[in-house]
């Protein structure tokens, strides 16, 4: 017969079917449960509650950060040993705090310090454990506690915790016997650092007050060890789950550079470090050891790759150079060919501004110098002692960036070669080098939302009047009708001649009438305007006026009259602009002149031709998203740096202000959400030569593509010939 159906109360999920063994009969202890889909049911008699999701998926899933590091210091050593710890290993740990009893008037730069107000060692340890549990106990899996006279190999400590299970109560360090105590009980020596798991910290917290009152000890590490053993029964261990906590005790007058013992090279922690110089020498020596190990591993891997490549169908010919680095990018057409940039020791022949030749300076000069030094070092390493090379001149240099592997170089060097007998001669040698892409890192960014109000700023001149109606219609349709959180401020830029006649003829009267109509249609909307009189409408001067009339936390979107506002872009403006961190300069898509592109065949591109008949205008910096506070900070630095402000401001745009006078990230990216119809921009000759040249280039490159221009010229020549 049909299987029997079970009746369930409304809204109550059905219990899972009993487990069945492979034979079909139910059996105890069988774990292979069959999943069941339980339909969602909401009781209509109960009020609906909106589910609040967490800000980060990491919070919702209960993930913890892996490692928290606490450094115990003192007022006497805060500016010496603690600073040395901060400069050597602090940047390798994800989170590091310094704990002290008392502190001085000034805390060293870049250090997060917690002062407990009492220098007694036991009190400092008690308060530190309390603080760690209260503020970080729920966020981290492992807690590493060290002193400021300890040198810890940060990468080794991080690797250690990745191999340990978080489900055990762990008290790991250099195990020491209590003086006159039980031989079985051990505590972790504080000088060599020790690792405590989150589960042990949570169990220890209720007993810390009892430990403070009942356990007497001079040393804080002994006190903590006795507390953990007496109340939790967990002694310190130096080995756990197959992982060893290696340490090394430094003798007096030790020379780290001469230490070659295996015990020293394998140490996770070294103690005692008596002064800052010794800390830096230790860091240098351990960095050299790790670098040698890395090079050794690379050589072993390259040998394995060569051996395996010989067994592939391609054979040894399939081996790429350098071994282990991706093969060069193979273009499928001439449009995908990556061009080489030519350079000498003094000049670069592929310049960012498009000029054919510019001086080699800054990062590019440092890059070329480093590459030549490395090439010479490798040549000497290969041919010594038979030959010794020294550089005379760089004859030719070529470089290109291959996104699949990194920066490639080809150098033609004029070298002087000296033999073992002292004979010297000149020779030219070509070398090839690759600076491979290293490990990709995710840069942490501050959290932003799409709820921020955007303040649009639209500067208008007399030449822009023909395009204002379309801008306002688009703004009303895409922001006012959709109730987007965006406001608009108009900036009327009057020429001095027009400003004198504003009582008789206002050139912006039509625009003001359009604004009045919008405010009547949308009763809750107010569109203010600001009138400015100037012959040179400098972007920075205009922004100075707007900035003073808005709060410091205002998010500005500086637009142009050809900008077509839409919700998609406004959300990207909100997400890509971060206060005190990043400003956003989108590159809009400029459609070509339809008279040249379509030649009467059609008047507008269809939906399938979106972003086809046009280009991204990299010469335009008219659109920008930034916070008022960031602009004011950069503008203050500019005012303090220059004397003749009027002349300088006429040669600058807002982009230049942020580029030169702010330490913020400048995010410059193509923006498919900003599409502008073709229009011939009017270039003001009163602006600087660079800005005028940039405007002219924008107009010329916005005419049409090369193929369209060639077709138009060909048709014109045919017409002239007939």
Automatic annotation (TrEMBL):
Enzyme Commission no: 2.4.1.-
GO CC list: Golgi cisterna membrane
Cell location: Golgi apparatus, Golgi stack membrane
Predominant cellular place of this UniProt entry's protein: Golgi
Molecular function as annotated in GO: glucuronosyl-N-acetylgalactosaminyl-proteoglycan 4-beta-N-acetylgalactosaminyltransferase activity; N-acetylgalactosaminyl-proteoglycan 3-beta-glucuronosyltransferase activity
Coiled-coil stretches noted in the UniProt entry, renumbered to this chain: 284-311
Region feature Disordered, mapped onto this chain: 1-35
Membrane topology: Single-pass type II membrane protein
Keyword Transmembrane: yes
Composition bias, Pro residues: 12-21
Top-rank taxon: Eukaryota
EC class of the enzyme, as a word: transferase
Keyword tags: Coiled coil, Glycoprotein, Golgi apparatus, Membrane, Signal-anchor, Transferase, Transmembrane, Transmembrane helix
InterPro entries documented for this protein: Chond_GalNAc, CS_glycosyltransferase
UniProt record similarity statement: Belongs to the chondroitin N-acetylgalactosaminyltransferase family.
Protein name: Hexosyltransferase
């Amino acid at each position: 017969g049909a299987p029997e159906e079970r009746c369930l109360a409304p809204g109550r999920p059905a219990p899972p079917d009993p487990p069945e063994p492979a034979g079909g009969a139910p059996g105890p202890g069988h774990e292979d449960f069959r999943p069941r889909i339980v339909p969602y049911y909401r009781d209509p008699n109960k009020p609906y509650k909106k589910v609040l999701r967490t800000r980060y998926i990491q919070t919702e899933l209960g993930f913890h950060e892996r490692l928290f590091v606490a450094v115990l210091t003192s007022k006497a050593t805060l500016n010496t040993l603690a600073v040395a710890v901060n400069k050597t290993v602090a940047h390798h740990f994800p989170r590091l705090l310094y704990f002290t009893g008392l502190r001085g008037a000034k805390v060293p730069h870049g250090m997060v310090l917690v002062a407990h107000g009492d220098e007694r060692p036991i009190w400092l340890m008690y308060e530190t454990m309390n603080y760690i549990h209260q503020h970080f106990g729920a966020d981290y899996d492992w807690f590493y506690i060290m002193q400021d006279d300890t040198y810890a190999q940060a990468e080794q400590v991080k690797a250690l915790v990745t191999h340990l299970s978080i489900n055990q109560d762990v008290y790991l360090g250099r195990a020491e016997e209590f003086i006159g105590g039980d031989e079985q009980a051990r505590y972790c020596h504080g000088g060599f650092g020790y690792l405590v798991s989150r589960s042990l910290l949570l169990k220890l917290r209720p007993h810390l007050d009892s430990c403070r009152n009942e356990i007497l000890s001079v040393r804080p590490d002994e006190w903590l060890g006795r507390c953990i053993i007496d109340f939790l029964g967990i002694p310190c261990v130096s080995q756990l789950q197959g992982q060893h906590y290696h340490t090394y005790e430094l003798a007096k007058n030790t020379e780290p550079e001469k230490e070659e013992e295996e015990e020293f090279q394998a140490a996770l922690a070294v103690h005692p470090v008596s002064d800052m110089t010794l800390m830096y020498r230790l860091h240098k020596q351990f960095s050299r050891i790790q670098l040698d190990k890395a090079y050794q591993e690379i050589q072993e891997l390259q040998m394995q790759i060569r051996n395996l490549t010989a067994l592939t169908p391609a054979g040894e010919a399939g081996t790429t150079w350098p071994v282990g680095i991706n093969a060069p990018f193979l273009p499928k057409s001439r449009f995908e060919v990556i061009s080489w940039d030519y350079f000498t020791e003094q000049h670069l022949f592929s310049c960012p501004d498009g000029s054919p030749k510019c001086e080699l300076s800054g990062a590019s000069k440092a890059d070329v110098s480093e590459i030549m030094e490395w090439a010479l070092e490798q040549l000497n390493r290969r041919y010594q002692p038979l030959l010794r090379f020294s550089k005379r001149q760089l004859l030719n240099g070529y470089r290109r960036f291959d996104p699949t592997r990194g920066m490639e170089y080809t150098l033609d060097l004029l070298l002087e070669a000296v033999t073992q007998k002292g004979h010297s001669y000149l020779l030219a040698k070509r070398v090839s080098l690759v600076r491979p892409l290293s490990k990709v890192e995710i840069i942490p960014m501050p959290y932003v939302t799409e709820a921020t109000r955007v303040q649009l700023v639209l500067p208008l001149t007399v030449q822009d009047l023909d395009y204002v109606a379309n801008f306002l219609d688009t703004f009303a349709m895409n922001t006012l009708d959709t109730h987007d959180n965006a406001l608009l401020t108009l900036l009327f830029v009057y020429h001095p001649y027009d400003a004198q006649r504003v009582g008789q003829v206002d050139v912006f009267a039509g625009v003001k009438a359009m604004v009045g109509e919008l405010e009547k249609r949308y009763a809750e909307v107010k569109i203010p305007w600001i009138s400015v009189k100037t012959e040179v409408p400098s972007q920075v001067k205009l922004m100075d006026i707007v900035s003073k009339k808005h709060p410091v936390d205002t998010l500005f979107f500086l637009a142009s009259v050809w900008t077509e506002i839409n919700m998609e872009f406004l959300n990207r403006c909100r997400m890509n602009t971060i206060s005190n961190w990043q400003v956003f300069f989108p590159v809009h898509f400029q459609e070509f002149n339809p008279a040249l592109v379509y030649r009467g065949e059609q008047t507008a591109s269809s939906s399938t031709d979106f972003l086809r008949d046009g280009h991204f205008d990299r010469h335009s910096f008219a659109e920008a998203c930034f916070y008022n506070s960031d602009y004011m900070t950069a503008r203050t630095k500019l005012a303090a740096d220059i004397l003749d402000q009027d002349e300088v401001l006429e040669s600058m745009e807002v982009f230049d202000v942020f580029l030169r006078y702010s330490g913020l990230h400048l995010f410059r990216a193509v923006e498919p959400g900003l599409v502008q119809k073709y229009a011939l921009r009017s270039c003001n000759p009163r602006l600087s030569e660079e800005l005028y040249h940039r405007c002219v280039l924008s107009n010329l490159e916005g005419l049409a593509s090369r193929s369209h221009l060639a077709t138009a010229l060909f048709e014109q020549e045919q017409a002239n010939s007939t």
